[in-house]
Design a protein that fits this description.
- The chain is an all-alpha fold.
- The chain has one domain.
- It contains nine helices and two strands.
- Strands 1-2 form a two-stranded antiparallel ribbon.
- Helix 7 runs parallel beside helix 9.
- The longest helix is centred in the N-terminal third of the chain and has 23 residues.
- The N and C termini lie far apart (33 Å).
């Protein structure tokens, strides 16, 4: 059984989604929102609008990390190569998050630059047997480098999830049935 997704949400969930896929995306999003809410609430010195926008960016990262692994989202972007490039281009979440939460911009800009560069390479490998392996390699390098940037708490987790979301969950065509060779 597949559920038809409203056109407003096609970029996030695809045109059709399984009930299980929707449930997992919702559960992951809700769980991460609950886990992150106290950290955002602790930033009382920041204007409410900044905390709300940062929370929405974090929610988008969390939801996307799960949704990009679903068959519905994968299929939507597999049939629309131009949309894949647009997805990569609009993902300025980490620098925006740093600005909203008054965090040092440079570490987040470095993670963002690495992530976008890696996503471009992975996207160029679409249909190649090594796509999944290259994406996994970039993910390993990026995750290993994160502690070197002295990111803390929420920033570290958001950066790691962003890297996973864009490079691996989105970047790889998971339904193509590639051999890792």
């Amino acid at each position: 059984m597949q559920i038809k997704i409203p056109s407003l949400l096609h970029e996030v969930l695809g045109e059709r989604q399984s009930p299980g896929g929707l449930a997992i995306v919702a559960l992951v999003s809700a769980a991460l929102a609950v886990l992150w809410l106290p950290a955002i609430g602790d930033l009382a010195e920041l204007a409410l609008w900044r905390r709300v926008l940062a929370g929405l960016l974090l929610l988008d990262i969390a939801a996307g990390a799960a949704a990009n692994l679903t068959a519905g989202t994968n299929e939507f972007y597999a049939r629309r190569p131009a949309h894949r490039w647009g997805f990569i281009a609009v993902h300025v979440h980490l620098p925006a998050l740093a600005a909203l939460l008054a965090l040092p911009l440079m570490p987040y800009a470095l993670v963002w630059g690495f992530t976008i560069g890696a996503a471009i390479v992975v996207n160029l490998l679409n249909g190649h047997a090594l796509q999944r392996l290259v994406a996994g390699g970039f993910l390993c390098i990026g995750l290993t480098a994160l502690p070197l940037l002295a990111l803390e708490g929420l920033g570290m987790v958001a950066s790691a999830l962003f890297l996973f979301k864009v490079v691996y969950a989105f970047g790889v065509d998971h339904q193509r049935g590639q051999a890792d060779g």
